[in-house]
Queue: 3 jobs
Job 1
Amino acid sequence: MLRFGTDGVRGVALTELTEQYVADLGHAAATVLSLKHVVIGRDTRASGLALQTALASGFVAGGATVELLGVAPTPAIAFAAAQRGCAGAVVTASHNPYGDNGVKIFGIGGIKLTDEQERMIESTMAASGAQSMSGQRSSESVATATESVAAMNDYRNNIEGLVPSRAFADIRIVVDCANGAMSDVAPYVFAQLGATVIAIHCEPNGKNINAECGATYPKIIGEAVRLHQAAIGLAFDGDGDRVIGVDHVGNVVDGDHLLALAAIDMHERKVLDGNGVVVTVMTNAGFHAAMAQHGISVVTTPVGDRSVLIALDENKLVLGGEQSGHIIYRKDATTGDGLLAGVRLVDLVRRKNVTLQKLAQDAMTSLPQVLINVRVESVATDLATQFAQEIAAAERDLNGVGRVLLRASGTEPMVRVMVEAQFEETANSVAQRLAASVVKRLGGSR
């Protein structure tokens, strides 16, 4: 049985993540969480409609009414759940290739599930075993779901209301929507705010989501920004909960820089509640140095915007995020929202009247960092212990400057090898050696 990972459940669509499994997941979630109403959306994968139908039938069989939002960004579903005081679910595999799919579930109020809630749902599914609710599925139960367009209008209006009307007039922006759920949303919102918008990869066909485009391929939008002489580029992932920026010459402005810019700006405007920010273990050492320089405290969590959200609430902070581009403005959202973060970034550039290139350079200087994703046949449960000798040798090579991190991906069968060092050549050579060790011991490829 598939299990919850860093962000929901994912697997190969319709073979690992079957309609049967998804229906049972919805039924178990409705039962465990005592759900009365659920809003459901999906990204643009070919398998999305069938899995959404199965998920809806599961929720209905579990006693919930269902409101279908169709193709919608993950943060729009979370927003709708928060507005309605209900639960939410998204059929998406985020940045994964189109052949994969998944389910993200939000509890009542649009908050991500706790570890305990996920364990209870898994236990309920395991206990049901052969007593699957699939036999109870019927066209009648699915028909009780209703479709809604109002929720998407509310989401767009909310984002547009964060800044003054037509605030982005005379700003040229390239948006890369990864042929995903932001394709009909982000270009519209920025145009409504007055920007001249060049939209790329906004023509989903069910199979081209994340295909050499979007947040995982920022080089592509960098080229488009230079071609169209734009001021800023914004690249989203397939479900729209994260964003990567690009300045006017095509330099990538990653999540660390986006978060540093936001934290410093909010600190200066005295709206950074708690005068702190939440990041993950992947955050560059340069970020920590920049925050120390400005007197901003930093809380570090495991990878995943769910971990960031928990730490934000526990520490009563309002800003957090990940290097990958998940940025959480806690007063405005219950999850990472790429569009919200993109609008906030463009507004910051507008208010400062300085190029994004200069703002990003002034905000922080990254320590050279190399990240290698090793696709493996089997993932060790404790990489730090299994590779203790290799990690110790790597740390000696860093001469006290930098760090080494091996971690299993929570969304794919991968081990992520990250090395920071004083010099890029050192980081690269150490990372390559560690990655080779992972391949040799766990099998797989790079």
Note: The domain at 166-252 is CATH 3.40.120.10 (Alpha-D-Glucose-1,6-Bisphosphate; Chain A, domain 3).
Job 2
Amino acid sequence: MNKIISSKKVLASAVLVLSVLGLVFFSLPVKADLVSIYTHPPADITANSAIVSGELSNLAGRNSASIWFEYGLTESYVSRTNNQVMNNTGTFQATLSGLNSCTLYHYRAAGDNGDGVVYGIDRTFSTLCSTNEIRVTLEAVPYSGPAPLDNVDLKADVYGRQAGDVHYWFDCKNDGSWDKELTIYQGPSSSYTSDNLCNYSSVGTYTARVRVERFGLTAENTASVTVTGTQSPVQTGGQYTLNVQKTVQNITSGSSFVDSVNANFGDELNYKIVITSSGQVSAPAVYVKDAMPAGISYSGGLIIDGVTDGRSIIDGILLDDIPAGTVKTITYRAKVKTQEFFNLGANNLVNSALVYNTGLSISDTATVIVVKGVVAGAATNVSTGLVDSLFGSLLLPLLLAGLAVWIFKSQIIGFDRWVDKRKMVVDDFRANQKLASLIRRRK
């Protein structure tokens, strides 16, 4: 009877241990895995079309994924191809047609397996120009600021089909008087920046102009420069208040915008800055600036309130006056550098968005955590916290082993008593065997 009771206790103890281990494993969150998407270089570029390609390297446990391309004149893309459904990993492509000749285009691959959209990196190509075609674009850097706005650069990008001498003319105010003229030998598509060329002393909107000529072909373009007034004092009896919130998104892993995000080497990031103006009056002449920490490189793609902006937030930009009750949203792209830029262990990359004018200065930070040589993980996994990290490392088995040892030593389930009884039975059996052997020898 006692043996039956002991057996039941042993069985109950085993069931309890298995239940505890099962509870630990099944309480772990399930990873929301996203696809892995890469954007490949273009091919077969003509004056009005190009073939773009990408690669789906991971379905992340799903049976299929929907893939497509986004493209346009800027990193806002605007256009996209039709969705394709892929049931296996591999390369895919699409033909972009109806394009403008002699024009620079941006594109990227995208995919979604039902758990979230993932984008490949941004790539560019220029459509071919005909032999009798040349184009030029003009950018003023900076294109706005308070008076006096001095030392403005004029950057011209030339697109064509033939290499040769390019003759440039620059006019800061489009008044018919060229402020600079030069000739340089350049490739079919190239650029030239006239540094610190233009000075604007008075408030107003100006038009800068560029003209280029090569092999008898000419092209022109313009750019606007806005010069604002100096900061007005806060109105009597009125106040303004600015608030800033900085968040970051890991595009590669498909995370949402958060204060702190995990990332791997080479991951694409998207930063968001939200500035809120409140009070009785407008916040005058507001600037915003953001510096990249070591380990992250700025990729551009600046968008202010849904509109693509060619300036660099690293240098600082003027947002002009922000009326009370207005919210301005700013996003831009960045990328985690390769592993040689990091130390072993966890690297906390903190960068701060600075919002300021002559009356105040406020800031907020966002953090990107990059681990080198300690925790291995795929770049496309959505982080689910500490338990998720334990599940993908060697620490979890060690914890489970420690739990089992603790349960055994704590005498909660009687493992120690069962082992002692079992040892006594084995010792008695061996002693009887040895005694029987000695008796046989004496006979």
Note: Residues 24-31, 231-237, 374-393 have pLDDT under 50 and may be disordered.
Job 3
Amino acid sequence: MSDTKILTLHPDPKKSGVNIDQGKYDVIRKAAFAVLEREKTMKPMAFLQAISDAVGPDFDGSAAWYGESVKLDMEARGELEHDRKKGTLWLKR
């Protein structure tokens, strides 16, 4: 991947994001959008599994860990909604 890092955001202002490789961020984010465009709403664990399946076994690192980091970043940026009471995710339109 690349040497460029991105600091992700966290939806809880009391918590901080993580520094991750920009290339991995882009791959996971693209997969996240594709998965949610196709499925509309998902449970978080199914979402992370779908991301792992989408990026495949050649992804360098834990796709689920990167998926969770990117999911939180997308929430913080207002691109994704996560209803924690119902346990569902969907793209914000």
Note: The mean pLDDT is 94.
